[in-house]
Structure formats: structure tokens, C-alpha cells
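Incident review: delayed structure delivery

Summary: a single-chain prediction request sat in the queue longer than the usual turnaround. Root cause was a stuck worker, restarted by the on-call engineer. No data loss occurred. The affected request and its eventual output are reproduced below so the record is complete for anyone auditing the incident later.

Affected input:
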Amino acid sequence: MARKNANLDLTEGVIWKQLLLFLLPIAAGTLFQQLYSTVDAIIVGQFVGSDALAAVGGSAAMIVQLVVGIFTGLSSGATVVISHGYGAEDQTKLTRAVHSAIAFSLLAGTIITVLGILLAPNTLQWTKNPQEIMSDATVYLQLYFLGTVPMLLFNMGSGILRAVGDSRSPLYYLIVCCLLNIALDLLFVAGLSMGVSGAAIATSIANLVSAVLVLLKLTRAKAGYQLRPRLIRIHGAMLLHILGIGVPAAIESAMYAVSNLLIQVPINNLGTDAVAAWSAAGKVDGIYWSLMVSFGVAIMAFVGQNYGAGKYDRMRDSVRVCLKMASGMTIVLSVLLLLFSQFCFRVFTDNPNVIQYATQVMTYFVPFYFIWTFIEVIANALRGAGDALVPMIISVGGICGLRILWILLVVPHWNTLLGISVCYPVSWFFTAAILILYYKKGRWLHHGSTPPLEKPSDPI
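Output delivered after worker restart:
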């Protein structure tokens, strides 16, 4: 199977150079994706007010995170299967995986759209969303769900491209659509005074454009991952293979979101200013998380291709290199966020209480970011080798389980921003320790459905 020059062959070359070339477009893309929701919050906060900021960034944002997280986890299954097929040069596997993934996106997106619109009011009530922002939050959430199908198609299509070494195309599409989202936000919210409705509609339109761009790219591909509309259907065995890897990751993402929703409840009880502050902190904090996600995506595809090619030594070496790169980035970004986060919050609002609360939250989180580096890189390296179940069990138990217990047992007696925030670094430390121990045992090397033969690894 001939490989296009536009795609990086991650099974050859100097590891740190290949990883960096592959990583940089993903990192830029995740920042632009983070900018999507951040722009909504900034424009709504500045042109409508702090109540509207709380409406789009409180419980509504947590619910969106739940849905996006579930499907991002599912799409990771397709990324791993396709990267294995690409590394092994198995064209039949590639073709079936691509068309099954797109068909599943269409089906799942339609179901999520309907359920999301119907259940939005009840879900917001369950999270004890403040009544004064309930109407705006409901409208924003329901309109946002109208763009679910294109959003899922874009995420799945981007995962396919990254699996075959093309991390640049998704970046270009994200830049175009992010700029479109900003322009539409300014038009609908600032120009036409449409409030939170305008922000949601702008995002949905931008999602649609991004989906069209990534699907056009796939239809024009000349290799085994080319998308041919007449072949779009679910291949049962291939879908089960994809879901076998994707479902554990989806469960993990869902549990993260559920635990965050449970955390949102005591935050909501602290009042609208606290909700707005938590939202603003989440947007600034999201700069770090979006960059760390890019390391996870990169190492998953890198390990996946090398697993398919049977290069086990190169897989291990790439994990060490990725950890060093991620750790360096974490140190630099942590210092910058601690120094300048307060100035960032002024972009969202001029409410002094909101700024003060948000600054406090960042001081509780940032010093412990380095712990997350190990979780993100190691867990995704394991998934790249086809071992998705064990990382899910460790993460759900270590992170989500501890957070839920904290909210149920500790927060009722310590219901402050500090009391709520402390559960994050505690859960990170516990989970990172267990993941490192599991990784070092090496059992994950033989979790793929068809273990490849060992081949000589390339020098670093």
C-alpha cells in the first residue's frame, strides 16, 4: 500500500522529530478547538453579562463535555484500529474501519441529538442549575445539540486522518471554523443581540462547516482510507473491534464528565458568581488540558502504527520521549498560568468577585498539573497498543471514584472552592501511581487482537 508524502510514517525515523512533527499540528488544533467554547464564553460574558456566562459555562458546559467525551472515547477506538491497519499495510481493514466509523457517527449522532434536546431541561434541573439562568442554559444546550451530528463526524474524520499520520489537515479545518465561529458570535451576539442562542447557533454552523471539510478530504484520499459514500455501512465484526477499544475509553470519559457534573452541584450551591468563576477558570485551565490531550492523541497514534508494524522497542522509546516533552511543556505553562491567569479572567468579565474566585481555583490546580502528564501519556500509549480496558478501570476507580466519594463524604463538611478543588490533585496522584506500576509490568504489549511479530526497532 503506497503511503502519501503528506502523511507521516511514524514507524520510521528519529522518534523525537517524528513525534514533534506529528504533535505540533494536533496541539495547535486542540487549542483552536478550546477556543471554540472560550469565544462563546468571552463574547457572551462581555456583551450579555455574568449571568449569561454562567448559563453557557456552568451545568450546560458540563453536559456538553459529557456528550463530547463519550464520543471522543468511541472515536479513539477507530483511531487505534485504523493506525494498526495502516502500520500493517492492511488495506481491507482500513476500508472497513473507515466506513464503519463514519456510519456509526451518523447513527450515534442522530440518537444523541434527539435525546439531548428532549432531556436538556431535566438534566439541568438534576444538577441544581441556578433558576435565574435556567432559561438561558436550556436554550443554549438544546440549540447546541442540533449540531451534534456534524461535530461527531468531524471528530471521527479527524481521528481517521491522524491515525494515518495526517495531523495537519484537521488543524487547517479547525482554524477556518474557529475564525468562522468568532465572526458568527460577534454577528449574532454582539450585532444582532441574540444572546446565548446566537452563541449556540454560531457554534453549530461552525461544526457543520468543519464536518464538510474533513469529509471532503477523506473522499479525495487515494489510499485505503478513502471514504466512498456508497460503501458507508456498519461492518459488524469491524465495529465490534472498534467498540472493544472505544467503549472503555468512552466509559472513562463519561465518568470524568459525570464526576464533574456532581462537582458542579456544590459549585452551583455557592451562587452565580461562583458558577461564573468556575466557568472562567475552566476556560483558562482548558489551555493546559487541550495541550495535554494533544500529547495523548499523538502518542496513541504513534504507538498504534508501531504496534501494527511490530516495533515494540520503538513503542517504549516513544513513550519515554513523549513524557519528557509533555513534562517540559507542563512546567512552562504552569508558571505562565500562575503569573497571568488573573489578567486572562478580565477578558471574560469585570466582576471582581468572579475574578477573585477564579484566581483562587487556578492556584489550587496549577501546581499539581505535572501529575496529570503521566496519566495522559501512559493511558493513551496503552490504548494505542489495543489495551483500553485496564486504563479505563484504573482511571474510573482512581479519578472518578475518588471524586465521587469526596463529593459525597467530604464536601458536605467543607463546602468551599478549596474543599471542592482539592479532590482533583488527590485523584490525579492516586491514578498516576497505579498506571505507572501497570505500564512497567509490560502486560499491555499483548492486548491487540492480532499480536504482530517483533521487528528490529530504529535507533533514537
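Verification: Confidence is low (pLDDT under 50) at residues 1-5, 448-460.
Action items: add queue-age alerting; document worker restart procedure.
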